Amino acid sequence: MLLALRVAVWGVSAALLLGCGATWYVYRSLTRGLTTSDALDAVRGKAPRHLDNSVNLLLIGLDSRKDMNGNDLPRQFVQTELHAGSSDIGYYNTNTLILMHIPAGGGKVQAFSIPRDDYVQTLNGDGSAQGHYKIKEAYANAYTTAHDKYAAQGVKGADLEARSREAGREATLSTVQQFTGVPIDHFAEVNLLGFYDIAKVLQPITVCLKHPVKDRYSGADFPVGVQQLNARQALAFVRQRHGLDAGDLDRTRRQQAFISTVTHQLKSAGVWGSPAKLQGLFDVVKKDVVLDSSWNVLDFAQQAPDLTGGNVVFHTLPIEGFGIRNREDVNLVDPEKIKSIVQQAFGAPGSASPSAGTTAVSSTTVDVINGNGARGAASDVLSSLVKLGYSAGTTGNTATQSATTVRYGAGAQRAAQQIAGRLHGGTAAPGPAVPAGHVVVTLGADYTHPDAPTSSATAPPSSGAPDADSGPAVKAGGVPCVN
């Protein structure tokens, strides 16, 4: 759902801006009054920079039962429509965190859901440590500290709420950026009321379930198969975790499937090109959604089609198991493994220091061997990698092989992982005969240009099969069937 909102603001506005006669007037009338945040200013430059013009987006779902000014939502509404207990539940935890990567040249968009109970080092916006908590608590911890601080200074009402929430956003951005090792360029935030209001504008919403479900906690009560939901049911669909085989992880895939369905419906209904159809959606966005202040719709004019055209694959970051910390059930994670997975899938530079065995990108030499059979493929690949900052090595040819491989010498592991992710070259592996500081790419019959759309995403690396620790990926472009 957050993706649908984000695309509505970015992609549609960009299309209108570029295509209408009175474009600027139309754009301004739709977007005037959006709630924006400067929270990204606190974390810029604190993660390895992009090697190209790709964009990373963080979608934040806040579990708050309050409005933008911090007022409790009406009790009856929370209980009957949201089926969410009372306004005292949820506080300011981020129950949805989805990090998306839009490649610079278009093509497959990779998205990772971060399970809300992952036990990590949480940070404040200035990078100082909060301690180890569930990742969802970074926002709430910073909000509470800021709220107490500003209240003691005499700040009150909506201003107190706004400043406290801004501290929460900064903490969430800082924590996610540190956890994944990639920069965040833009973000969007919505709470339960916002989700409900937008679902009301878009209803009925089509979903598909593999099994019938009935859950008194979320209010989910659905048969097996394809069905259409109203706003109340849609919220229950994405909130249910009790009664599902994988609990929160299945709920994460519900959220991914919902985003896929909504973006597909918006495109098929022709909403993107109609200011009249957009107006109701934008009115809700202005009331319930927070967007970062730095986005420029022109930057996304060419990227929006990838978000709405079924060219997105959602993964769930793996966990290592379950445990009890701070007397709470948590997901245990391997931070270095998480960084490696995300950085390879996003084609991002690693954050490890040279002492950890990582050669800087500019110091890594890449050799490309053509086992693909296509004339000039090795030269084309090497040229594209040099543009990203790698040093040019040699090119050559070999007998045709089925799969693309990436092998690295001493000190070049991170660079090899980045290259493998960009070329969809499987998992990078050490090559005993590869010189130190070198990466050797051998193109196979499966090689396609990294910016070309593919029928399915190459799964990020893990210790086992693709997505072995987190379940199957959810592919956008229709109505995925989930638990």
From TrEMBL:
Residues 364-447 form the LytR/CpsA/Psr regulator C-terminal domain. Residues 451-483 are annotated as: Disordered. It comes from Streptomyces roseochromogenus subsp. oscitans DS 12.976. It comes from the Bacteria. This is LytR family transcriptional regulator. Belongs to the LytR/CpsA/Psr (LCP) family. Residues 93-267 form the Cell envelope-related transcriptional attenuator domain. Residues 451-473 have a biased composition (Low complexity). InterPro entries: LytR/CpsA/Psr_C (IPR027381), LytR/CpsA/Psr_CW_biosynth (IPR050922), LytR_CpsA_psr (IPR004474).
